[in-house]
Each structure stands twice: as C-alpha cells, then as structure tokens.
Amino acid sequence: MKIAFEADSLIIQQKTGVSYSEEAVVKELLLNYKENIYFFNIFARSKETRINFFLSTSCQMNCCRWLSYDWYRLLSSFLGLPYSLFFGKKADVYHFFNCYVPPFVAGKRVVTVHDMAFKSYPETVRLKTKMLRALNFKRSLKRADVIVTVSDFTKQELITYYPEFTKKRIEVVPNGVSPDFFYKAPELVIKNVKMKYKIEDEYFLYVGTLEPRKNLERLIAAFAHFMRGRKAGPQLVIAGGKGWRYESIFERGNRLSCAGKIIFTGYVEKDDIPALLSGALAFCFLSLYEGFGMPILEAMSCGTPVITSDSSSLREIAGGAALLVNPLNIESIEADIHKLYNDKNFREDLSSRGKRRVLDYSWKHAGEKLITIYTDLCNEKN
Predict the structure, then answer these.
(1) Domain span at residue 302?
(2) Are 370 and 25 within 8 A, CB to CB?
(3) Burial, 331: exposed, middle or buried (Cβ in 10 Å; 0-12, 13-18, 19+)?
(4) 36-68, pLDDT tens digit by residue?
(5) Where are the beta strands (DSSP E) in 36-186?
(6) What's the total number of domains in the chain?
(7) Are 335 and 229 found together in one domain?
(8) Same domain, 149 and 298
(9) 373 in a domain, yes or no?
(10) Model's pTM, two decimal places?
C-alpha cells in the first residue's frame, strides 16, 4: 500500500498530545509494516529537516516550501484550494491526524478525532480553534471515508453531536504507551531531574499544557488548603508550557504560593518526563475534559499512583486503576491529596493496579487496527 500522513504536527518544536500520538503510531507502522510505501506530506518551508529521523528507503517526504500549514488551512477553508495540487496523487490512503480533511484529496481519506472539546467545553477552547472547527469539522467528517476516534467516549460524543454520520464507518483506535520510554527511572536519574527543576521535597505532579481545561486553578487551591497550617510537607510541581489563557493559573499559584511549595517548571523536555513521573508521590490529572488522557497511562507505566477526574474519557481510560475525584469540588480534591500523602499502602495499591491497567494499551495494537483500516479501504478501491 501507498500511505500518506499529514505530518506537520511532527515537526513542531513544542509537541502536544496530538503530536506525540501521531509520532508514536507512525513509528509503529514504519517498524512493523515495512512492505508499504509511506509519504510524509508537510507544509514546512525550511523546517523539513526535523522529520528526517522518520525517513528510510520505504519513506518519502513531500514538502511544500512556499506555504505554511496554517496559511494552507485558511486558504483551503475559504477557497477550496486542492490538497492534490501540492501533494499529487501518489498515495492510496491519506491519514489526517488532527480533525481536518482538506478538499480534493486524491485517495481514500482517514481522519482522527481526538476530542469534542469545542462542542462540550467551548469556553476552554481558544477562539481561533473554535472558528476553524465551526468552519471545517463537519466538512471533514463528510470528506472522510473512515473516522477514527481515540476512545469510546469520543465516539459517542461524535455521534451525539453529529447523528447524521452514524452510518459512516467510525473506528475506535485507542492511544498507547511506550513502556521502553515510560518506565520507573533509577533513583540517581530522579535525583538529577529534581535538582534540574529545583524540587527539594516529596511532590505531587502535573505534566501538560497550562490552560483552563486542565483545571489547574482548582488543583492549586486544593493543594493550598491541604498545606494550610503545615510547616513542612510536599511540593506541587506543575510542569508544562504556557497554553491559552495561562495567566490566571500563574496568578493563582503566586497568590497561594504556600511558602515556595508550588513550582512552575515551564516546558519540560520529553526525556525528563519519565523521571519526573517516577519520583512523584502521585500524578494529578484533574482535567475538566479529555478525549483520551494519555498522561495518566504514562504515569501508570512509570509506577506512579494517579488521581484523575471522574468525567469525560478519563474514567474509561483509568479503568479502576486510579483514584477518581469530582474535578469541580476543591474539598474532594484536597481530601484525596491528603489520603494519597498519608497512606503509603494505598499509593502502592494504586501503583500495582496502574501497572496492570497500562498493559491494555499499546501502540502495537493501534498500528494493527490502522493497518486493517487502510487495507480495507484499498480493497474497496480495487
């Protein structure tokens, strides 16, 4: 088969969950299905060298050097600028990993929908994203031959908001986790990473983009309540790059600094994340909404206890292996932080359950499902 990937998210410098997901599953396909020919289509101008580590004899890069992806998406949304004008008709199947299928793609089209936040929690989505979704999302679903969602939760939301597409083929292909990367780090590595980010005590950890949907203000408030009256205790480490409307998160953290107990690390390099996870008392992922929630699996793979929201897809992904909490209730979050801090046996039990749960998710399984989808589409073509 000749398979093309929309690969612009693979070349951005500060990657997000969508980028990491695409990178992991594409590597899986290249490693285990070498009989296929793969194309990487990018609107990259001078940035195309960042994708070189993917390329081999079975891979080719198609690069538009005079137009950025953002400009192409804008122009194609209003003018119907054909995708095939830039990337020809080389592939049998084209996979678009970030909700948008452009017009006039010369082959079968697969689109991945990671979440429906712009519908379920529009107040947590930046205006530009909402406008593009409003303009293009339904068009993309119409253009797609197969819609892929990353969880049953997202599939059901998609059907709820767009019931006219229930007869279209919708496949659930869950994200995975890479156990060769996310594993319990040695104590010396943990110690060095703690020194790098100026972490001096035991700590609770959040890793991810700083934005309203991640519910960090309530986490900070709950931690501040927990620390009230304590002369000593753990730290709260908030690791991640600045997202949309991040200012109020810093403001809350500075106002409730708890004598230096709240640390904002800024954007963390990927190689440091397993050690940060491994050293934490618990990983706190209390998002108001997630289409999947890959970070909780990564924490579990490192043997770290997880506290997460009893909402959206997070209950589905946690599968009874995490402490679930109402993300809107600061008192409940504080009570669970207290329980995790004071009950070592409970933390060990959660750690054991998490290690078992993470075995249900793998990039190998995701790759197998995608290859089946691509094969079916090619057979239809013939």
Answers:
(1) 187-360
(2) yes
(3) exposed
(4) 999 999 987 555 555 666 666 678 888 888 888
(5) 37-43, 59-64, 93-96, 108-113, 146-149, 169-172
(6) 2
(7) yes
(8) no
(9) yes
(10) 0.90
